[in-house]
């Protein structure tokens, strides 16, 4: 049994899975319910309008989106900036272009210009 401080309120609690206490989990669940209800009634609202209409802080709404706890299907105006370039995105931390670029950079065996370092031939001894 692990004892931890809640990331949100600082209270000690028995950590089971998440890094927030049961009271903060309940509050987050209530916030998600309020956001979803607001978006059902106002599908064209942006994050600021949702924040004002529900009382849920902007940063918390963005965190829900980044964590994948709030999925958007019919809400085109619910965008926030990509962590890398600032381009508007609707899910995760990176926009589609930055995600592709980072994946390409992390792919083993590729040079920065996109060409294979080893095109399948062994070097001669």
TrEMBL record:
Keywords: Cell projection, Cilium, Flagellum. InterPro entries: Flagellar_operon_YvyF. NCBIfam families: YvyF. This is Flagellar operon protein TIGR03826. Residues 105-125 are annotated as: Disordered. Residues 105-118 have a biased composition (Basic and acidic residues).
């Amino acid at each position: 049994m692990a004892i931890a401080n809640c990331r949100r309120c600082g209270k000690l609690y028995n950590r089971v899975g998440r890094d927030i206490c049961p009271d903060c989990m309940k509050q987050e669940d209530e916030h998600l319910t309020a956001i979803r209800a607001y978006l059902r009634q106002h599908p064209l609202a942006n994050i600021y309008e949702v924040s004002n209409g529900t009382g849920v802080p902007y940063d918390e709404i963005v965190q829900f989106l980044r964590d994948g706890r709030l999925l958007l299907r019919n809400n085109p105006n619910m965008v926030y900036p990509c962590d890398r370039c600032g381009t508007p995105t609707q899910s995760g931390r990176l926009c589609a272009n930055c995600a592709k670029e980072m994946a390409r950079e992390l792919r083993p065996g590729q040079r920065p210009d996109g060409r294979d370092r080893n095109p399948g031939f062994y070097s001669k001894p």
